[in-house]
Amino acid sequence: xxxxxxxEQQQLRKDLIEFIRGNVTEQVIAEMDAAEDAMESSGQSxxxxxxxxxxxxxxxxxxxxxxxxxSYPKEYGGQGGDRxxxxxxxxEFLRVGIxxxxxxxxxxxxxxxxxxxxxxxxxxxxxxxxxxxxxxxxEPHAGADLAALRCRAIRDGDHFVINGQKMYTTSAHFATHIxxxxxxxxxxxxxxxxxxxxxxxxxxxLTVRPLWTIQNNPRAxxxxxxxxxxxxxxxxxxxxxxxxxxxxxxxxxxxxxxMGLNLDRVxxxxxxxxxxxxxxxxxxxxxxxxxxxxxxxxxxxxDKVAELWIEAQVCRLMTLRSMSIVERxxxxxxxxxxxxxxxxxxxxxxxxxxxxxxxxxxxxxNGSPLAVEKGVFAHNTMGxxxxxxxxxxxxIMRDQVAKRGLEMPSLRRAQKSK
Length: 418
Prior knowledge:
By secondary structure, the chain is of the alpha+beta class. Helix content is 45%, strand content 13%.
């Protein structure tokens, strides 16, 4: 199989790089940093209408070129383009800290499971970044084992009444809506009786409380993998929503949620989180010495960097394979889970190797006078290990690969058969 880019896609990348060089200015970056600080302190939304003038002008230019929601159908606000080209667009913008990706937005799940009305209402607003969803999945007793969730949604006529708690809901303080997984049938089996809801964050009875992370003081620099300064707890107290807020059918939310997570694992944002550390350390070693000592001259370091770079190419090929499946309209079986195992663990291995290469410099955080690249490598170390848990633990993903990819029985069934 040839995973090479077509001449048109190669030209697209060149056009993107040229556009970014000419339009992503210091004023844009400063404005984005100020907006991030304001969001974390005040909880204001970050959708396009509340951005500063330089960022607003930038996004207007991006939209004029048809680069927002590139692969989504035109009737829903997209351009009807191919998935590989969309990945190229998202990747180049993410490299300079500008996220125009719809990964994690809920858009892929709406496209796959939403009603026609939901698609026409939500997708154009998500593509224009007028709406932004918080992912309400994890709970105090349901993280890696999401099927153990306890948040309840009880039907009351044509409405549902929601009570419970979510945590590590990172976008909740600035999102316009929440994409919520709740239990609607407590008597059903663990993976049944669960539903997905989408409704506004200002719905009465919903409360957001901050959870400050290890990246908060000092703040992680732009480009840090998992560098969010703030996450959140979200509480639901008799939150009343109409049945039209259901995404997919009632009690079939596990299938919808799993499908959405698998689709969200495909693309530039997940790929770059896995390989950005490799690229950063290669660029640093090419250009930097430490008091006359050049790490790049050390043969052990050179061998290790080459080994990690080869692993990064596996991440790239896995991402391209997954996008190829989406492009052909195929269904995931184990591919997304395999990618979720390899890529985060590769990121951890890279982070650990970099700390050994840089020695004491790898401990200096943002703001330290001798910090390397504003401390990005030190902050990456603090954030790396959560990648093996976010969006499903690698242990759970290995089980999915075994069952769906290798057709092995689950451990529970295997034990019963003995």
